[in-house]
Predict the 3D structure of the following.
Amino acid sequence: MERHERRTQVNRVTLGIIGTGMVGSAVARRATDAGLHVVLSNSRGPETLADLVAELGDRATAATPAEAASAGDLVLAAVPLAFHERLPRAELSGKTVIDPMNYALYPGFSIPELDSNELTSSELVQRHLADSRVVKALHNYGPKQMLEMFRPAGADDRTALPLHGDDATAKKEVADLLDVLGFDAVDLGTLPESWRSEPNTPLYALPYIGQPPSGLTPQEFVAWAQQATGIPVPAARIKELAAAAVRGTAGFRM
C-alpha cells in the first residue's frame, strides 16, 4: 500500500526538463508513458519543440528553461556540464534538481577543479545552484536502455540505478521518480562520493551494456553504447561495483 500511495503521489508530479538532447528526450518519453506531466525546454526556444511535444501527447508542453524550472516539482538539468552556469538559478531555488551531467574532455576544454579531483562535477553544479537540492542520477545509463529496460516493481530483471546527494529528502524524491519510471534506486552517498559512478569507474555504462568490441575510439565507443542491448543490473551489483571503484583521472575523453 505504501508503494502504491507513493507512486500515486509521484504521478501527480510535473517534471521540468531543461535540455532535450538524447537524455532529456528519452526521460521525457519514459515519463509521459509512465503517466507524468513534463514541461520541456531547450536553449533554442519552445517553438523548436513542437514535433517532440506532439509526439509525446497531452502530458507534454514546451516552455523556456526558466518556465520549465518554475513549473517542475522536480527538474532534470540535462545540459552539457560546460553550460551548467546557464541554468536558471533563481527559478531553481528550493527545487530538487536531477543532475545527469558528466565531465567530458574536449580539445581546449577542461575544468581544473575537476581535473585535480578537488570537486566532483555534481559538487560544481551544486555550487552554482546553491539554493537547490542537487541529486546526481541518470548519468551512467543510456537513453536507449532507459526506453527498453524499464520493468514493474518487484520484477526479477528490474535494473537499479545509482544516485548521490547531500539532502535525504531530495534523494527520496528522485528514488520515487525512478521507481515510477521503472527502475530501482541505490543511494551511494553524498555528492563528494559521486565519482564512484562517473566515467572511468566500474559503474559507468558497461554493467548495463556489456563489454564493447576491442579497438574502438572514444567516439566509436559512444556510438556503440548508444545502440547496445541493455543488460539488467540488480541493486546488489550496483553496491559491489561502487565499493570496488578507485578514484582516478576525472572526465570521459572525447
Remarks:
- The chain is about 40% helix and 15% strand.
- The two ends are 47 Å apart (CA to CA).
- The mean pLDDT is 93.
- The CA atoms of residues 140 and 204 lie 5 Å apart.
